[in-house]
Amino acid sequence: MADQAELMRLLQATACGDQIAFRQLYEKTSPALMGLCMRMLKDRASAEEVLQEAFVKIWYHASEYHEERGKVSTWLTSIVRYRALDFLRARHPQDTSDELLPENASEEPGPLRWAVAGDEMNALQLCLEQLSGEQKQLIVLSFIEGLTHQELMQRVESPLGTIKSWIRRGLQSLRRCLEP
C-alpha cells in the first residue's frame, strides 16, 4: 500500500466527495485488499464482490475515520475484513450464532478491536505470544484468515466445543492483557 500520508490525503479528499481522490485511493490500496479478500474467501468472484461492497462503505463513511485510532491502511483493512466476515457468515449461517465473531460483540470498540485498528499492533503481538499454542493458532486462523468453525475443526482435528473453548479463553486472555 501507499505511504500513510498519501493515504490520509486521499481519504480526507474522499470524505469531501472528491471522486478522483477516491479512484486514486482505490488504485493504491485495492491490490493488497483484494489479496486479503482472496485469502479469506478463496473465490475470486466473492472476493471482488466483497471488495466492491467495502469500497462503497469507504466512500460513504470516509469522514468517520479518526487518525488517533490508527493508520488509514489499518482502517481500510478492517472494513474489508469485516465485510468478508459478513459474507462468510451469510454463506455459513450455522456459525452466526457464535458470540466470538467480532460483529456479534458490543458495538463499542473493545480492547482487541482498538489494538487491531490502532497503532498498538505490537501490544497485540506481545499478548498473542502469551497465549497457548492452540489458542494463538485458532485465533489467528479465525480472525486473521477468516476460517469458519467447521474449517477450524478440519484443520486442527478437534471437536467444535474444544475449539470454541480455546478461542473463548484466548480472547479473554487477550482482553485482560490489552486492557489499559
Task: Detail the poorly predicted runs.
Answer: 95-119
- Domain tally: 2
Cα-to-Cα separation, first versus last residue: 30 Å
The beta-strand count equals 0
Number of helices in the DSSP assignment: 9
Rounded mean pLDDT is 79
The CATH architecture category of the largest domain equals Orthogonal Bundle
Gross geometry:
globular
Please characterize this protein's 3D structure.
The chain has helices at residues 4-15, 19-41, 44-61, 72-91, 111-117, 121-129, 133-144, 149-156, 160-178. The chain folds into 2 domains: 1-91, RNA polymerase sigma factor, region 2, helix turn helix motif (Rna Polymerase Sigma Factor, Chain: A, Orthogonal Bundle), CATH 1.10.1740.10; 97-180, Winged helix-like DNA-binding domain superfamily/Winged helix DNA-binding domain (Arc Repressor Mutant, subunit A), CATH 1.10.10. Helix 2 (19-41) packs antiparallel against helix 3, helix 3 (44-61) crosses helix 4 (72-91) and helix 6 (121-129) crosses helix 9. The protein starts with a helix and ends with a helix. The chain is an all-alpha fold. The model is unreliable at 95-119 (pLDDT under 50).
List the helices and strands and how they pair.
Layout: H1 4-15, H2 19-41, H3 44-61, H4 72-91, H5 111-117, H6 121-129, H7 133-144, H8 149-156, H9 160-178
Provide tags for this entry.
180 residues, single chain, mainly alpha, Arc Repressor Mutant, subunit A, Rna Polymerase Sigma Factor, Chain: A
